[in-house]
Specification:
Strand content: 15-25%
CATH architecture of the largest domain: 2-Layer Sandwich
Number of helices: 13
Distance between the termini: 48 Å
CATH superfamily of the largest domain: Endonuclease Chain A
Largest sheet: 8 strands, mixed
Oligomer: single chain
Number of domains: 3
Structural class: alpha/beta
Number of strands: 10
Radius of gyration: 23 Å
CATH topology of the largest domain: Endonuclease, Chain A
Length: 377
């Protein structure tokens, strides 16, 4: 009889705790999330409060250790200082239609960088040839090579780039490589030790681990793909350092941009900010920021984004850009048009007038298992 009463008390206590969780999360969850994401999490928590609370604690909070947040704020200051060092003489006012005149200013507010004139832009659509171009530029490096990639695999492509880095290091070139802790597990395990033995600095970005000091969340990753050679040649885009068929049965087709001109300094600033984010090391600008060279006639502007951004930079910028154009073509590995995007696009004057056509080319298969949860939300 006594045992039965205790079981009843525990049952009532458990039931009460479920309602406490429901009401508490009803207040907490919507504070830093979109309406759609809040509804998804709240529905799950209301159905199964305790499992929902645990999963939200592990994956739902937009959280990184306080030390990393402070360092990211300092890194943002470095970006602004680097922007000032580039100089106002190359800042451009792009020739845009009236509907798009606000885009450079919005991008500057979101990412701290101005639009810079005098750049040469080369679009690279051939996966294998892009790897060849990166290797060729590394072989021409004289001062430094900086690589930052979400996936830096230990496969044939990764090994070829690694060999080029070791050749550069043997010539006295300073080589630094940043690899994401989750996306580049293979490269960190198989390739990184060899590169380090050759005098190349290889760092693990956003390390994970339940009991690791200053560890980052498993699902908050650095997805950037950046290469900077001697501060005068840069690459960015969607392609990782990996074989195109690293997802079996789904060969990747990616788009990269090879850049020369003043905008390379913005890529350099982003690399150095992420490097500082992991090490706390501040470099003397020196030859890391050579004098801007007019390499072409194209204006360029970098809009950085990442897990620490309090503003959805890329999404906001793309939304405003698309809403002001008549024809849009997008290439995305993960694209989830939210309510804000759809509402603003449909209400824009261009779309309302029936003059807007949008096409998006999206991946039918994620290129990494860590991306799968994003496709389900």
């Amino acid at each position: 009889m006594l045992q039965s009463e205790r079981m009843k008390e525990w049952s009532l206590l458990y039931l009460a705790s479920e309602w406490v969780i429901r009401f508490a999360m009803l207040i907490y969850v919507p504070q830093k999330r979109s309406a759609a994401a809040s509804r998804t999490w709240l529905l799950f928590i209301f159905l199964v409060p305790w499992p929902g609370l645990i999963l939200y604690w592990l994956f739902g909070r937009i959280y990184l250790p306080a030390r990393r947040v402070v360092m990211q704020q300092r890194a943002s200051r470095f970006i602004r200082e680097a922007q000032a060092q580039i100089g106002a003489r190359v800042v451009a006012e792009p020739d845009l239609s009236p509907a798009l005149l606000c885009i450079p200013g919005l991008a500057r507010q979101l990412g701290d960088f101005d639009a810079l004139a005098g750049n040469q832009i080369e679009l690279l659509v051939d996966y294998a040839k892009t790897i060849d171009r990166v290797i060729a530029d590394i072989d021409l490096a004289r001062r430094h090579v900086h690589l930052l990639f979400y996936i830096f695999a230990g496969d044939e492509s990764g090994q070829r780039v690694g060999d080029a880095l070791m050749r550069a290091a043997n010539r006295g070139v300073q080589c630094r490589v940043l690899m994401d802790a989750v996306g580049s597990v293979g490269g960190l395990q198989r390739l990184a030790p060899v590169l380090r033995s050759a005098g190349i600095e290889v760092l693990e970005m956003l390390p994970v681990g339940l009991f690791r000091r200053n560890a980052a969340r498993f699902d908050l990753r650095n997805h950037r793909k950046i290469a900077v050679i001697d501060g005068i040649t840069g690459y960015t885009g969607s392609q990782n350092i990996a074989n195109p068929e690293f997802v079996s049965g789904y060969p990747n087709e990616e788009l990269m941009v090879r850049l020369t001109g003043p905008v390379v300094a913005q890529l350099q600033a982003m690399f150095l900010a992420d490097h500082y984010f992991e090490t706390g090391t501040v470099f003397n600008p020196g030859d890391l920021f050579p004098d801007p060279i007019q390499a072409g006639k194209s204006p360029c502007q970098l809009v950085p984004s990442g897990p620490l951004s309090s503003r959805k930079r890329a999404g906001t910028h793309h939304c405003d850009a698309i809403c002001g154009t008549t024809t849009n073509r997008g290439h995305n590995s993960v694209f989830r048009p939210g309510r804000t995007f759809l509402t603003r696009h449909l209400r824009s004057p261009v779309a309302a007038g029936g003059r807007s056509t949008s096409r998006s080319f999206d991946a039918c298969q994620p290129d990494h298992y860590a991306i799968c949860p994003a496709l389900l939300l």
